[in-house]
Amino acid sequence: MESLTITLGEHVFDALAAGPVDGEFVLLLHGYPEFADCWTEELTALGAAGYRAVAVDQRGYSPGARPTEIADYVVASLVSDALGFADSQGADRFHLICHDWGGIVGWALAGAHSDRLKSFSVLATPHPQALHAAVTSSQDQYDRVGYVRFFRSGVGPAEEALLGDNAARLAAAYGGAVSEELVARNVKRFSEPGALTAALSWYRAVPTDDLNIEAGRVTAPTLYIWGSEDKALGRLAAETTKDWVDGPYQFVELPGASHWLPEESADKVIPLLLDHLATHKG
């Protein structure tokens, strides 16, 4: 595993990389509350398979890329960052793998720039418009994303609630599905001044509480993996995501799996990813 920095304009991003530098480029985008190292097992496997895999601590998560204005965290800027990460590594076309909020960024990127993608793989996160429809039509999905409304209610209360009592509420968010070592490392990083507020700015920059995030139809070959026990993202949005993909599409439900698929279910996720990427190489 290598540590990298990627400079885009005034921002410097921390990243992890594995695999030969001349391998097909794979970009991995993490979610909340995670960092690039949530992908450690996937990076190792991709590198061993000959890919050049890079996972980045995204905007707000990298100390050197932590603007203070909420407007700096709109989805369009996050998509621009992702394209910039690929450009910085000389990758005109690339494989994209995403989880949670990284999936929102991935769907938006794939909808607008499918021509840049050899393949698209997303863990947990349905298409944003499928999620929006579910939030507005299903009481179950509306209730599941109550935390989003809390995060968006203003700067301060959410940070205090999550970091109070030695960050007990933040640590509990992982539901025991992530190793204690990684949880402790995440808590330490989110306890840095401004770090948690920057991460929550992703939510606060969304225009509406009902998560109406713009994302178009996708033609890139898409693999969507969803855990049946995901507490945040329910079945309705997962099963209707297919309506937003015009290209080759594979939906895989992992029975009994939670939201934290990169960490908890790497043994099941990695073979699916490798097969998907191998099918759409070149």
Keywords, separated by commas or semicolons:
282 residues, alpha/beta, 8-stranded mixed sheet, 42% helix, 18% strand, globular
Describe this structure in words.
The protein has helices spanning 40-48, 75-88, 101-113, 128-137, 139-144, 146-151, 157-172, 180-190, 195-204, 235-240, 261-264, 266-279, and strands at residues 2-8, 11-18, 25-29, 52-56, 94-99, 117-123, 222-227, 249-254. With 282 residues, the chain is an alpha/beta fold. The radius of gyration is 17 Å and the shape is globular.
- Work out the helix count: 12
Query: Unreliable stretches, pLDDT < 50, 5 or more residues?
Result: none
Q: Gap between N and C termini, in Å? A: 24 Å
Task: Give the CA-based shape.
Answer: globular
Secondary-structure class: alpha/beta
Topology as a string of helices (H) and strands (E) = EEEHEHEHEHHHHHHEHEHH
Strand order of the largest sheet: 1-2-4-3-5-6-7-8
Total strand segments: 8
The residue fraction in helices comes out at 40-55%
Q: How large is the radius of gyration?
A: 17 Å
Mean pLDDT: 97
Major sheet summary line: 8 strands, mixed
Which range does the strand content fall in? 15-25%
